[in-house]
Amino acid sequence: MGKEEKKGTIVLENFNSTANLATNPGFQSTLSLGSKEIINEKEYKPFEHRNVAHPNSTIGSLVHLLKSSLGSGILAMPAAFKNAGLAFGAIGTIIVGFICTHCVYVLVKTSQEVCVDAKKPSMGFAETCGAAFEFGPKRLRPWANFARTFTDYALTCTYLAALCVYIVFIAENFKEVLDEYWPEYKLSVETYCALTLVPLVLICQIRNLKWLVPFSAIANVLLVICFGITMYYIFSDLPNPAEREMVAKVTQWPLFMSTVIFAMEGIGVVMPVENEMAKPQHFLGCPGVLNVAMTIVISLYGLVGFFGYMKYGDDVRGSVTLNLPQDEVLAQSAKILMALAILFTYSLQFYVPMEMIWRKLENRISVRYHDLTQITIRTLAVVGSVALAAAFPDLELFIGLSGAIFLSTLGLLTPAIVDTVHNWDRGLGFLYWKLWKNLFIGIMSLIALFAGSYVSIKGMVEKFGEIHVEIANNTLSTMNDTIV
Protein backbone atom coordinates (compact mmCIF):
# COMPACT_ATOMS: atom_id res chain seq x y z
CA MET A 1 0.00 0.00 0.00
CA GLY A 2 2.33 2.63 -1.13
CA LYS A 3 2.21 6.31 -0.56
CA GLU A 4 4.27 9.08 -1.83
CA GLU A 5 4.30 12.82 -1.63
CA LYS A 6 4.78 14.61 -4.92
CA LYS A 7 5.01 18.34 -4.80
CA GLY A 8 2.23 18.61 -2.28
CA THR A 9 -0.16 16.39 -4.16
CA ILE A 10 -1.61 13.24 -2.65
CA VAL A 11 -3.80 10.55 -3.97
CA LEU A 12 -6.04 7.78 -2.82
CA GLU A 13 -5.15 4.22 -3.52
CA ASN A 14 -7.62 2.74 -1.16
CA PHE A 15 -11.00 3.41 0.24
CA ASN A 16 -13.99 1.24 1.75
CA SER A 17 -13.52 0.35 5.13
CA THR A 18 -9.66 0.60 4.70
CA ALA A 19 -7.91 3.50 3.07
CA ASN A 20 -4.61 3.37 1.28
CA LEU A 21 -2.88 6.15 -0.54
CA ALA A 22 -1.32 5.99 -3.95
CA THR A 23 0.49 8.40 -6.15
CA ASN A 24 -0.69 10.64 -8.99
CA PRO A 25 -4.24 11.63 -8.16
CA GLY A 26 -4.73 13.46 -11.35
CA PHE A 27 -5.34 17.17 -10.95
CA GLN A 28 -6.52 18.80 -7.76
CA SER A 29 -9.75 20.72 -7.73
CA THR A 30 -7.96 24.05 -7.82
CA LEU A 31 -7.02 23.55 -11.49
CA SER A 32 -8.99 25.31 -14.15
CA LEU A 33 -10.37 23.20 -16.92
CA GLY A 34 -9.05 25.20 -19.80
CA SER A 35 -10.75 26.73 -22.79
CA LYS A 36 -13.91 25.25 -24.19
CA GLU A 37 -12.93 26.27 -27.69
CA ILE A 38 -11.44 23.76 -30.10
CA ILE A 39 -8.04 25.09 -31.03
CA ASN A 40 -6.38 22.11 -32.64
CA GLU A 41 -7.90 20.24 -35.54
CA LYS A 42 -6.37 17.01 -34.29
CA GLU A 43 -8.31 15.48 -31.41
CA TYR A 44 -6.53 15.66 -28.09
CA LYS A 45 -5.56 12.21 -26.80
CA PRO A 46 -5.14 12.30 -22.99
CA PHE A 47 -3.34 8.96 -22.72
CA GLU A 48 -0.52 10.22 -24.96
CA HIS A 49 0.07 13.22 -22.70
CA ARG A 50 0.19 11.44 -19.34
CA ASN A 51 3.58 11.68 -17.72
CA VAL A 52 3.62 9.27 -14.78
CA ALA A 53 7.02 8.78 -13.17
CA HIS A 54 6.34 5.19 -12.08
CA PRO A 55 3.29 3.89 -13.96
CA ASN A 56 1.57 0.71 -12.80
CA SER A 57 1.24 -2.31 -15.04
CA THR A 58 -2.18 -3.75 -15.77
CA ILE A 59 -1.61 -6.50 -13.19
CA GLY A 60 -0.30 -3.94 -10.68
CA SER A 61 -3.41 -1.81 -11.13
CA LEU A 62 -5.60 -4.87 -10.64
CA VAL A 63 -3.79 -5.60 -7.36
CA HIS A 64 -4.23 -1.98 -6.23
CA LEU A 65 -7.96 -2.07 -6.95
CA LEU A 66 -8.37 -5.39 -5.15
CA LYS A 67 -6.39 -4.19 -2.16
CA SER A 68 -8.49 -1.05 -1.92
CA SER A 69 -11.77 -2.96 -1.98
CA LEU A 70 -10.94 -5.99 0.16
CA GLY A 71 -10.64 -4.30 3.51
CA SER A 72 -12.23 -4.69 6.91
CA GLY A 73 -15.66 -4.01 5.37
CA ILE A 74 -15.79 -7.61 4.20
CA LEU A 75 -16.17 -8.67 7.85
CA ALA A 76 -19.42 -6.66 8.02
CA MET A 77 -21.04 -8.66 5.21
CA PRO A 78 -22.58 -11.38 7.43
CA ALA A 79 -24.38 -8.61 9.35
CA ALA A 80 -25.63 -7.27 6.03
CA PHE A 81 -27.04 -10.71 5.15
CA LYS A 82 -28.86 -10.74 8.50
CA ASN A 83 -30.93 -7.84 7.16
CA ALA A 84 -31.64 -9.59 3.87
CA GLY A 85 -31.68 -13.35 4.41
CA LEU A 86 -29.56 -15.97 2.67
CA ALA A 87 -31.37 -15.99 -0.69
CA PHE A 88 -32.11 -12.29 -1.02
CA GLY A 89 -28.68 -11.40 0.39
CA ALA A 90 -26.90 -13.45 -2.28
CA ILE A 91 -28.99 -11.95 -5.09
CA GLY A 92 -28.88 -8.45 -3.60
CA THR A 93 -25.09 -8.52 -3.25
CA ILE A 94 -24.74 -9.33 -6.95
CA ILE A 95 -27.20 -6.59 -7.93
CA VAL A 96 -25.66 -3.91 -5.70
CA GLY A 97 -22.17 -4.98 -6.81
CA PHE A 98 -23.16 -4.72 -10.47
CA ILE A 99 -24.63 -1.24 -9.96
CA CYS A 100 -21.55 -0.06 -8.02
CA THR A 101 -19.32 -1.41 -10.81
CA HIS A 102 -21.41 0.33 -13.46
CA CYS A 103 -21.22 3.64 -11.57
CA VAL A 104 -17.44 3.34 -11.43
CA TYR A 105 -17.43 2.56 -15.15
CA VAL A 106 -19.45 5.62 -16.16
CA LEU A 107 -17.33 7.84 -13.91
CA VAL A 108 -14.07 6.67 -15.50
CA LYS A 109 -15.56 6.80 -18.99
CA THR A 110 -16.78 10.34 -18.40
CA SER A 111 -13.38 11.35 -17.03
CA GLN A 112 -11.58 10.02 -20.09
CA GLU A 113 -13.96 11.88 -22.42
CA VAL A 114 -13.94 15.25 -20.60
CA CYS A 115 -10.14 15.10 -20.53
CA VAL A 116 -10.36 15.47 -24.31
CA ASP A 117 -12.57 18.58 -23.98
CA ALA A 118 -10.45 20.10 -21.21
CA LYS A 119 -7.16 19.06 -22.86
CA LYS A 120 -5.90 17.58 -19.62
CA PRO A 121 -4.08 14.23 -19.41
CA SER A 122 -5.99 13.05 -16.34
CA MET A 123 -8.47 14.16 -13.70
CA GLY A 124 -9.51 13.17 -10.20
CA PHE A 125 -13.05 12.50 -9.00
CA ALA A 126 -13.93 16.10 -8.12
CA GLU A 127 -12.33 17.45 -11.31
CA THR A 128 -14.31 14.99 -13.42
CA CYS A 129 -17.60 16.07 -11.83
CA GLY A 130 -16.77 19.73 -12.40
CA ALA A 131 -15.67 19.14 -15.98
CA ALA A 132 -18.87 17.24 -16.83
CA PHE A 133 -20.85 20.38 -15.97
CA GLU A 134 -18.25 22.74 -17.47
CA PHE A 135 -18.51 21.07 -20.88
CA GLY A 136 -22.15 19.99 -20.56
CA PRO A 137 -25.38 21.85 -21.35
CA LYS A 138 -24.93 25.64 -21.30
CA ARG A 139 -27.54 26.16 -18.59
CA LEU A 140 -25.65 23.85 -16.25
CA ARG A 141 -22.14 25.22 -16.79
CA PRO A 142 -22.38 27.75 -13.92
CA TRP A 143 -22.78 24.73 -11.59
CA ALA A 144 -19.34 23.35 -12.45
CA ASN A 145 -17.57 24.87 -9.45
CA PHE A 146 -20.34 23.72 -7.11
CA ALA A 147 -20.05 20.15 -8.45
CA ARG A 148 -16.29 20.16 -7.86
CA THR A 149 -16.60 21.63 -4.37
CA PHE A 150 -19.48 19.36 -3.36
CA THR A 151 -17.56 16.24 -4.41
CA ASP A 152 -14.46 17.45 -2.58
CA TYR A 153 -16.37 17.99 0.65
CA ALA A 154 -18.39 14.79 0.23
CA LEU A 155 -15.19 12.77 -0.08
CA THR A 156 -13.87 14.44 3.07
CA CYS A 157 -17.05 13.69 5.01
CA THR A 158 -16.99 10.10 3.77
CA TYR A 159 -13.51 9.54 5.16
CA LEU A 160 -14.33 11.27 8.45
CA ALA A 161 -17.38 9.02 8.85
CA ALA A 162 -15.24 5.97 8.18
CA LEU A 163 -12.88 7.13 10.95
CA CYS A 164 -15.75 6.89 13.43
CA VAL A 165 -16.51 3.37 12.23
CA TYR A 166 -12.84 2.48 12.70
CA ILE A 167 -12.90 3.64 16.31
CA VAL A 168 -15.94 1.48 17.10
CA PHE A 169 -14.21 -1.48 15.39
CA ILE A 170 -11.16 -1.01 17.61
CA ALA A 171 -13.15 -0.49 20.81
CA GLU A 172 -15.48 -3.47 20.38
CA ASN A 173 -12.70 -5.92 19.49
CA PHE A 174 -10.52 -4.87 22.43
CA LYS A 175 -13.51 -5.02 24.76
CA GLU A 176 -14.33 -8.59 23.70
CA VAL A 177 -10.83 -9.80 24.56
CA LEU A 178 -10.19 -7.83 27.75
CA ASP A 179 -13.62 -8.65 29.19
CA GLU A 180 -12.76 -12.33 28.84
CA TYR A 181 -9.34 -12.23 30.51
CA TRP A 182 -9.95 -9.41 33.01
CA PRO A 183 -13.66 -9.72 33.87
CA GLU A 184 -13.21 -7.77 37.09
CA TYR A 185 -12.31 -4.68 35.03
CA LYS A 186 -15.19 -4.71 32.54
CA LEU A 187 -15.51 -1.35 30.80
CA SER A 188 -18.14 -0.02 28.39
CA VAL A 189 -17.58 0.32 24.66
CA GLU A 190 -17.74 4.09 25.13
CA THR A 191 -14.83 3.89 27.57
CA TYR A 192 -12.75 1.87 25.14
CA CYS A 193 -13.52 4.46 22.44
CA ALA A 194 -12.18 7.13 24.78
CA LEU A 195 -9.05 5.06 25.51
CA THR A 196 -8.15 5.14 21.81
CA LEU A 197 -7.86 8.92 21.95
CA VAL A 198 -4.22 9.24 23.04
CA PRO A 199 -2.64 6.77 20.57
CA LEU A 200 -4.77 8.08 17.72
CA VAL A 201 -3.90 11.72 18.42
CA LEU A 202 -0.19 10.83 18.46
CA ILE A 203 -0.21 8.70 15.31
CA CYS A 204 -2.26 11.29 13.42
CA GLN A 205 0.39 13.96 13.96
CA ILE A 206 2.51 12.19 11.32
CA ARG A 207 2.26 14.35 8.20
CA ASN A 208 4.74 12.68 5.86
CA LEU A 209 3.30 9.86 3.79
CA LYS A 210 6.67 8.10 3.75
CA TRP A 211 6.44 7.46 7.49
CA LEU A 212 2.92 6.11 7.18
CA VAL A 213 3.83 3.38 4.69
CA PRO A 214 5.12 0.94 7.39
CA PHE A 215 1.81 1.27 9.24
CA SER A 216 -0.02 0.38 6.03
CA ALA A 217 2.17 -2.68 5.44
CA ILE A 218 1.67 -3.93 9.01
CA ALA A 219 -2.09 -3.37 8.76
CA ASN A 220 -2.26 -5.44 5.55
CA VAL A 221 -0.42 -8.38 7.11
CA LEU A 222 -2.62 -8.30 10.22
CA LEU A 223 -5.81 -8.14 8.15
CA VAL A 224 -4.80 -11.17 6.07
CA ILE A 225 -4.03 -13.22 9.19
CA CYS A 226 -7.27 -12.10 10.87
CA PHE A 227 -9.28 -12.94 7.74
CA GLY A 228 -7.73 -16.41 7.57
CA ILE A 229 -8.57 -17.17 11.20
CA THR A 230 -12.11 -15.88 10.77
CA MET A 231 -12.70 -18.08 7.72
CA TYR A 232 -11.41 -21.09 9.67
CA TYR A 233 -14.09 -20.60 12.32
CA ILE A 234 -16.85 -19.75 9.82
CA PHE A 235 -16.38 -22.97 7.85
CA SER A 236 -16.14 -25.15 10.95
CA ASP A 237 -19.37 -27.08 11.65
CA LEU A 238 -21.64 -25.09 9.37
CA PRO A 239 -25.34 -25.58 10.20
CA ASN A 240 -28.04 -26.47 7.69
CA PRO A 241 -28.95 -23.44 5.50
CA ALA A 242 -32.64 -24.26 6.10
CA GLU A 243 -32.16 -23.07 9.69
CA ARG A 244 -31.60 -19.52 8.46
CA GLU A 245 -34.06 -17.00 7.09
CA MET A 246 -34.10 -16.96 3.31
CA VAL A 247 -35.69 -13.52 2.88
CA ALA A 248 -35.77 -10.96 5.67
CA LYS A 249 -38.46 -8.34 6.25
CA VAL A 250 -38.66 -5.58 3.64
CA THR A 251 -38.10 -2.98 6.36
CA GLN A 252 -34.61 -4.40 6.90
CA TRP A 253 -33.54 -4.24 3.26
CA PRO A 254 -32.38 -0.59 3.33
CA LEU A 255 -29.91 -1.44 6.10
CA PHE A 256 -28.65 -4.37 4.00
CA MET A 257 -28.21 -2.13 0.98
CA SER A 258 -26.38 0.65 2.84
CA THR A 259 -24.09 -1.84 4.60
CA VAL A 260 -23.15 -3.53 1.32
CA ILE A 261 -22.53 -0.15 -0.31
CA PHE A 262 -20.31 0.87 2.61
CA ALA A 263 -18.33 -2.38 2.47
CA MET A 264 -17.99 -2.60 -1.30
CA GLU A 265 -17.95 0.95 -2.64
CA GLY A 266 -14.46 2.20 -3.48
CA ILE A 267 -15.34 5.20 -5.64
CA GLY A 268 -12.60 7.36 -4.11
CA VAL A 269 -9.77 5.11 -5.26
CA VAL A 270 -10.79 4.46 -8.84
CA MET A 271 -9.51 7.60 -10.52
CA PRO A 272 -6.05 7.48 -8.89
CA VAL A 273 -5.59 3.86 -9.98
CA GLU A 274 -6.71 4.60 -13.55
CA ASN A 275 -4.58 7.75 -13.71
CA GLU A 276 -1.45 5.76 -12.79
CA MET A 277 -1.81 2.98 -15.34
CA ALA A 278 0.83 2.54 -18.01
CA LYS A 279 -1.97 1.40 -20.33
CA PRO A 280 -5.15 3.11 -19.07
CA GLN A 281 -7.09 1.78 -22.06
CA HIS A 282 -7.00 -1.59 -20.27
CA PHE A 283 -8.92 -0.31 -17.25
CA LEU A 284 -12.36 -0.49 -18.89
CA GLY A 285 -13.67 -2.98 -21.37
CA CYS A 286 -13.92 -6.75 -21.25
CA PRO A 287 -12.28 -8.29 -19.38
CA GLY A 288 -10.53 -5.08 -18.22
CA VAL A 289 -9.07 -4.29 -14.80
CA LEU A 290 -12.34 -2.96 -13.39
CA ASN A 291 -14.47 -5.95 -14.40
CA VAL A 292 -11.96 -8.53 -13.22
CA ALA A 293 -11.39 -6.80 -9.88
CA MET A 294 -15.08 -6.25 -9.12
CA THR A 295 -15.97 -9.83 -10.10
CA ILE A 296 -13.49 -11.08 -7.52
CA VAL A 297 -14.66 -8.54 -4.92
CA ILE A 298 -18.37 -9.31 -5.36
CA SER A 299 -17.68 -13.06 -5.20
CA LEU A 300 -15.64 -12.83 -2.00
CA TYR A 301 -18.05 -10.44 -0.31
CA GLY A 302 -20.98 -12.68 -1.19
CA LEU A 303 -19.11 -15.75 0.01
CA VAL A 304 -18.20 -14.27 3.40
CA GLY A 305 -21.66 -12.76 3.88
CA PHE A 306 -23.49 -15.96 2.94
CA PHE A 307 -21.49 -18.40 5.04
CA GLY A 308 -20.96 -15.94 7.89
CA TYR A 309 -24.71 -15.52 8.28
CA MET A 310 -25.27 -19.25 7.81
CA LYS A 311 -22.82 -19.90 10.65
CA TYR A 312 -24.04 -17.37 13.20
CA GLY A 313 -27.57 -16.51 12.07
CA ASP A 314 -29.29 -13.55 13.69
CA ASP A 315 -26.61 -13.49 16.40
CA VAL A 316 -24.03 -12.22 13.91
CA ARG A 317 -22.58 -8.85 14.87
CA GLY A 318 -21.30 -5.74 13.06
CA SER A 319 -17.90 -7.38 12.55
CA VAL A 320 -18.02 -11.16 12.34
CA THR A 321 -14.80 -11.34 14.38
CA LEU A 322 -16.92 -10.39 17.40
CA ASN A 323 -18.75 -13.73 17.02
CA LEU A 324 -15.61 -15.82 17.33
CA PRO A 325 -15.37 -18.03 20.46
CA GLN A 326 -14.55 -16.19 23.68
CA ASP A 327 -12.69 -19.10 25.25
CA GLU A 328 -10.17 -19.84 22.49
CA VAL A 329 -6.83 -18.06 22.23
CA LEU A 330 -6.76 -18.26 18.41
CA ALA A 331 -10.13 -16.55 18.15
CA GLN A 332 -9.18 -13.87 20.66
CA SER A 333 -5.92 -13.23 18.83
CA ALA A 334 -7.92 -12.56 15.63
CA LYS A 335 -9.88 -9.85 17.45
CA ILE A 336 -6.68 -8.20 18.70
CA LEU A 337 -5.12 -8.41 15.23
CA MET A 338 -8.24 -6.84 13.77
CA ALA A 339 -8.19 -3.99 16.27
CA LEU A 340 -4.48 -3.32 15.68
CA ALA A 341 -4.90 -3.45 11.89
CA ILE A 342 -7.65 -0.84 12.04
CA LEU A 343 -5.61 1.25 14.48
CA PHE A 344 -2.68 1.34 12.05
CA THR A 345 -5.00 2.04 9.10
CA TYR A 346 -6.62 4.98 10.88
CA SER A 347 -3.70 7.32 10.22
CA LEU A 348 -3.80 6.54 6.50
CA GLN A 349 -7.52 7.19 6.36
CA PHE A 350 -7.03 10.37 8.37
CA TYR A 351 -4.49 11.73 5.88
CA VAL A 352 -7.12 12.16 3.17
CA PRO A 353 -9.59 14.56 4.86
CA MET A 354 -6.69 16.43 6.48
CA GLU A 355 -5.15 17.12 3.08
CA MET A 356 -8.39 18.61 1.81
CA ILE A 357 -8.99 20.65 4.98
CA TRP A 358 -5.44 21.96 5.02
CA ARG A 359 -5.56 22.82 1.32
CA LYS A 360 -8.52 25.11 2.10
CA LEU A 361 -6.86 26.76 5.13
CA GLU A 362 -3.16 26.89 4.29
CA ASN A 363 -3.15 30.19 2.43
CA ARG A 364 -5.34 31.89 5.04
CA ILE A 365 -2.95 31.30 7.94
CA SER A 366 0.43 32.87 8.57
CA VAL A 367 3.33 30.50 7.86
CA ARG A 368 4.69 30.79 11.39
CA TYR A 369 1.40 29.39 12.76
CA HIS A 370 1.22 26.46 10.32
CA ASP A 371 2.63 23.87 12.73
CA LEU A 372 0.45 24.96 15.63
CA THR A 373 -2.63 25.05 13.41
CA GLN A 374 -1.89 21.59 11.99
CA ILE A 375 -1.50 20.10 15.47
CA THR A 376 -4.69 21.78 16.68
CA ILE A 377 -6.83 20.73 13.70
CA ARG A 378 -5.54 17.15 13.75
CA THR A 379 -6.17 16.85 17.48
CA LEU A 380 -9.67 18.32 17.26
CA ALA A 381 -10.55 16.06 14.32
CA VAL A 382 -9.51 12.94 16.25
CA VAL A 383 -11.33 14.11 19.39
CA GLY A 384 -14.45 14.78 17.33
CA SER A 385 -14.42 11.35 15.68
CA VAL A 386 -13.83 9.62 19.03
CA ALA A 387 -16.67 11.60 20.66
CA LEU A 388 -19.07 10.73 17.83
CA ALA A 389 -18.08 7.06 17.94
CA ALA A 390 -18.57 6.96 21.71
CA ALA A 391 -21.99 8.62 21.37
CA PHE A 392 -23.22 5.91 18.96
CA PRO A 393 -21.11 2.79 19.55
CA ASP A 394 -23.35 0.32 17.70
CA LEU A 395 -21.06 -0.85 14.90
CA GLU A 396 -23.69 -2.34 12.61
CA LEU A 397 -25.92 0.74 12.74
CA PHE A 398 -22.97 3.11 12.33
CA ILE A 399 -21.79 1.28 9.20
CA GLY A 400 -25.32 1.38 7.78
CA LEU A 401 -25.67 5.10 8.48
CA SER A 402 -22.30 5.93 6.92
CA GLY A 403 -23.10 3.90 3.82
CA ALA A 404 -26.57 5.40 3.53
CA ILE A 405 -25.57 9.05 3.86
CA PHE A 406 -22.19 9.27 2.21
CA LEU A 407 -21.48 6.36 -0.11
CA SER A 408 -24.97 6.09 -1.57
CA THR A 409 -24.66 9.76 -2.50
CA LEU A 410 -21.05 9.70 -3.65
CA GLY A 411 -20.90 6.21 -5.12
CA LEU A 412 -24.30 5.99 -6.82
CA LEU A 413 -26.10 9.31 -7.14
CA THR A 414 -23.12 11.45 -8.17
CA PRO A 415 -21.94 9.19 -11.05
CA ALA A 416 -25.55 8.90 -12.29
CA ILE A 417 -25.94 12.70 -12.38
CA VAL A 418 -22.51 13.22 -13.96
CA ASP A 419 -23.22 10.63 -16.66
CA THR A 420 -26.58 12.24 -17.47
CA VAL A 421 -25.16 15.77 -17.66
CA HIS A 422 -22.19 14.64 -19.75
CA ASN A 423 -24.36 12.80 -22.30
CA TRP A 424 -27.24 15.29 -22.41
CA ASP A 425 -26.00 17.01 -25.57
CA ARG A 426 -24.01 14.02 -26.82
CA GLY A 427 -26.98 11.67 -26.93
CA LEU A 428 -28.78 9.60 -24.31
CA GLY A 429 -29.10 6.50 -26.45
CA PHE A 430 -32.04 4.68 -28.02
CA LEU A 431 -35.29 5.79 -26.35
CA TYR A 432 -33.17 7.74 -23.86
CA TRP A 433 -32.13 4.50 -22.15
CA LYS A 434 -29.18 6.19 -20.42
CA LEU A 435 -31.53 8.70 -18.84
CA TRP A 436 -33.90 5.98 -17.59
CA LYS A 437 -30.98 3.90 -16.35
CA ASN A 438 -29.52 6.83 -14.41
CA LEU A 439 -32.95 7.68 -13.01
CA PHE A 440 -33.21 4.13 -11.68
CA ILE A 441 -29.77 4.38 -10.06
CA GLY A 442 -30.64 7.79 -8.64
CA ILE A 443 -33.90 6.49 -7.14
CA MET A 444 -32.06 3.50 -5.70
CA SER A 445 -29.45 5.76 -4.11
CA LEU A 446 -32.15 8.01 -2.63
CA ILE A 447 -33.94 4.98 -1.18
CA ALA A 448 -30.67 3.86 0.37
CA LEU A 449 -30.07 7.40 1.61
CA PHE A 450 -33.41 8.08 3.26
CA ALA A 451 -34.60 4.60 4.21
CA GLY A 452 -31.14 3.46 5.31
CA SER A 453 -30.60 6.62 7.35
CA TYR A 454 -34.05 6.31 8.94
CA VAL A 455 -33.55 2.67 9.95
CA SER A 456 -30.03 3.35 11.28
CA ILE A 457 -30.99 6.49 13.22
CA LYS A 458 -34.10 4.79 14.61
CA GLY A 459 -31.96 1.89 15.80
CA MET A 460 -29.45 4.28 17.35
CA VAL A 461 -32.18 6.16 19.20
CA GLU A 462 -33.62 2.91 20.54
CA LYS A 463 -30.16 1.72 21.53
CA PHE A 464 -29.44 5.06 23.17
CA GLY A 465 -32.68 4.78 25.14
CA GLU A 466 -31.83 1.25 26.28
CA ILE A 467 -28.44 2.42 27.49
CA HIS A 468 -30.01 5.23 29.50
CA VAL A 469 -32.57 2.85 31.02
CA GLU A 470 -29.79 0.46 31.97
CA ILE A 471 -27.75 3.27 33.53
CA ALA A 472 -30.80 4.47 35.46
CA ASN A 473 -31.52 0.96 36.74
CA ASN A 474 -27.91 0.47 37.80
CA THR A 475 -27.95 3.83 39.58
CA LEU A 476 -31.16 2.99 41.44
CA SER A 477 -29.76 -0.42 42.39
CA THR A 478 -26.59 1.19 43.73
CA MET A 479 -28.62 3.74 45.74
CA ASN A 480 -30.78 0.98 47.23
CA ASP A 481 -27.72 -1.03 48.22
CA THR A 482 -26.25 2.07 49.85
CA ILE A 483 -29.42 2.80 51.82
CA VAL A 484 -29.67 -0.81 52.99
Brief characterization of the structure:
The protein has 484 residues and is mainly α. 67% of the residues lie in helices and 1% in strands. The chain has a single domain, classed as Amino acid/polyamine transporter I, CATH 1.20.1740.
How are the elements arranged and paired?
Layout: E1 11-12, E2 21-22, H1 46-49, H2 58-69, H3 77-82, H4 86-118, H5 125-134, H6 144-181, H7 189-195, H8 197-203, H9 209-234, H10 253-264, H11 267-275, H12 289-312, H13 329-361, H14 370-391, H15 395-423, H16 433-483
Antiparallel strand pairs: 1-2
Helix pairs in contact: 2-11, 2-12, 4-5, 4-10, 4-11, 4-12, 4-15, 5-6, 5-15, 6-7, 6-13, 6-14, 6-15, 7-14, 9-13, 10-15, 10-16, 15-16
Keywords: Membrane, Transmembrane, Transmembrane helix
Domain Amino acid transporter transmembrane: 56-457
GO molecular function: L-amino acid transmembrane transporter activity
Shape: globular
Radius of gyration computed on alpha carbons: 23 Å
- Oligomeric status: single chain
Derived from helix and strand composition plus strand pairing, the structural class reads mainly alpha
Query: In whole angstroms, how far apart are the ends?
Result: 61 Å
What is the top-level CATH class?
Mainly Alpha
In CATH, the homologous superfamily goes by the name Amino acid/polyamine transporter I
Q: What is the CATH topology assignment? A: Amino acid/polyamine transporter I
Describe this structure as you would to a colleague.
A two-stranded antiparallel ribbon has the order 1-2. The chain has 16 helices and 2 strands. With 484 residues, the protein is an all-alpha fold. Helix 4 (86-118) packs antiparallel against helix 12 and helix 5 runs parallel beside helix 15. Residues 1-40 have low confidence and may be disordered. A hairpin with an 8-residue loop joins strand 1 and strand 2 (21-22). 67% of the residues lie in helices and 1% in strands. The chain has a single domain, classed as Amino acid/polyamine transporter I (Up-down Bundle).
